[in-house]
Amino acid sequence: MAEYNRVSECVGLITLRNPPVNALSAAVRQGIVDTVQRALSDPNVKSVVICGQNGIFCGGADIKEFGSNMTGPPLIPMIHAIESANKPVVAAIEGSALGGGLELALGCHYRIAHSKARLGLPEVSLGLLPAAGGSQRLPRLIGVPAALNLITTGRHVTAAEALQLGIVDQVTDHNTVAAAVKFALSVAGRSLDPRRISTHPCPQQPDLDALFEEVMQKVRQSARGAIAPIACVQAVRAAATLPYAQGMERERELMATLFTSGQARALQYCFFAERAVGRWRMPSGARWDTSKPRPVHKAAVIGLGTMGRGITVALAQTGLSVIAVETQEKQLMEAKQAISGMLERGAKRRGVAPALDGVIYSQNIQAVADVDLVIEAVFEDIALKTKVFQQLSAVCKPGTLLCTNTSALDVDQLASETPNPELVVGMHFFAPAHVMKLLEVVYGPRSSPQAVATAMQLGKKMGKASVAVGNCRGFVGNRMLKPYIEEAFFLLEEGATPELVDQALEEFGFPMGVFRMSDLSGLDVGWRVRKGDGLVEPGTASGRSARIRQGRRYSPLGDLLCEEGHFGQKTGRGWYQYDKPGSRVARFDPWLHSFLGAYRAQHGLVARRIDHQEVLERCLYALINEGFHILDDGIAAGPEDIDVIYVSGYGWPRHRGGPMFYANMVGLAKVLERLEHYQQLHPEVPHLQPSSLLRRLVASGSPPIHKWGEAIKKLHSQL
Ligand code: 3H9
Known about the structure:
By secondary structure, the protein is of the alpha/beta class. The strands form 4 sheets. The chain has an 8-stranded mixed sheet, with helices on both faces. Strands 1-2-3-4-6-9 form a 6-stranded mixed sheet, with helices on both faces. Bound molecules: (S)-3-Hydroxyhexanoyl-CoA. It holds the Pfam family 3HCDH. Residues 474-578, 615-701 form the 3-hydroxyacyl-CoA dehydrogenase C-terminal domain. In the C-terminal section; belongs to the 3-hydroxyacyl-CoA dehydrogenase family. In the N-terminal section; belongs to the enoyl-CoA hydratase/isomerase family.
């Protein structure tokens, strides 16, 4: 786990060996302790180099060990032993030095990095803080403001930035280990006192209190209830104000609190869930590791509205050639201008040249004849999309993958209109498509595993959290959103206000409550869908509208607002009012409140007091309940798929792990009991009827979330 060699006669070379990222498992820590001791006790060794195998220094502490009984030598004394060594120890950093990996390097006397290396203390994103001395050494090395920035955001810095900040001593474009060995030879015998970071005071900083106050305020605002960023600030404050030993004690205390918090468990679950969804599987048995993606060199986008423009940018930014098709000349010109602007702004942010030449614009669908993959993003109309798919089938070369960006239509139906349904999948992007992380890759019963593999690989290339899901109304994300929104409407009928519902959800950690979000995306979007479903009754504003439709409770509140022309931010009126159309600052709308009062009076509804707990339970448990239906139907392969969708696409607070993880934390029996309670009170609301899978999981002893897959398989085999 740590290999020892003597090189250049007098340099002890320690190589960490723990693929894939040389995480500091118990065995690696033991290996480092043993090899460092060996190097220090060998009189022929004048200096030491520590590196990692396979081009990566170290990805930090072994996250898989967290939560189990930790064995092996602890990190802190191990790093202290290196720092207090009487021979220079040089870290040779290739690939990544992250978390405990960078803390190990900070314990070394010198750091040499390859120009492509990335360094950082990302513990905050796992609900932790750099607790192997990182929160105390980094501010001493680079100053308090820079250390606060790195530690509270967890961002990775390039080798060039690390050099500028003073984290590394040298950057090389060549063989890093060779450069480190050469460097180690050159510093052998020099005094090491100035190189022991823990012995330095933090660089002086004027107005320390004001700085910490400002940063704390900023962090509290952006943390949305996450506790780790706040603990990170407290730990750096300890570095700035206390002697090293006391600062370390503070670091330990803060870490102990974080370590046992549900938030750390949730964030670490997210880390592994994001990787697990890449190992997709379909109900047919097809899987990620047995399905080879097709190469995609050239792609096309059909329809250059908001979604099509974003998708074109996302594709072009991966370096693909893109044919962007829009039949209307005026719209094509507008789209060209908008896409070029987005590419230029994106390139400026990333410090690269914009891929303007990568996009070819055309009014003619014939232009896509030789592409490998097409993404259709025309208006959500099944007849129009069917026509486009038929044209594409006639125009494209054999084997071209046909993808639809529909968010609401039936992918199977579209596939059935083409001669090769196996080549059809959904690629459901979220607006703005070049920014939002989530991509649902929707397969139908006839989609080939190769088509799914290709779309998943393309999603990864675009930097998306790509999740393969089965085809159903709303797929996973929007299907679960429906009961969540409906419960929010019902709460308004019963006496809640948009402000109360939004506040409860925002305190839970959503960036926006359901009504503010609805104002942002436009009330007319849902209105159109409900009209399509035959739920909207014309002229409801003039008379008493029915609250039971198609055999279930229905709230026409959203329809009534739309009839008034209140579409949200774009019209300046929605669930809130805005200074003018397009404004973003939501204000209390007295009209809306009297409208709600009149509506309740008309329907004989007596407003009652509703608290935050009821808002959360009804909105979130209804959403979670739908998640259990989705798992039972096999639309999502596992709870991780649902959770990644919600965290990366729907604003579910990451430190709460995702809806299914949250249900697991709350306890399945409790979720079931509350759903039963609300179902008794509202028998006309089917989505409060607990899913049979939830009942069966509770009956089988509420297994922990990592055992749900196994439990579901067993429960299905018993049916
Ligand atoms: C810490 O250090 C705490 C200390 O301050 C104090 C303690 C007292 N452990 O991401 P990839 C696995 S906390 C265990 O796909 P890439 C990962 O699950 C740690 N496993 O590769 C995956 O497994 P699988 C702070 C880990 O090349 C495989 O490695 N460190 C760890 O795209 C490949 O991962 C971090 O937060 C780990 N530390 O990216 C860094 N890291 O194949 C976390 C990875 O079974 N890691 N795995 O799915 C990363 O950010 C990226 O993995 C890295 C490589 C950039 C290193």
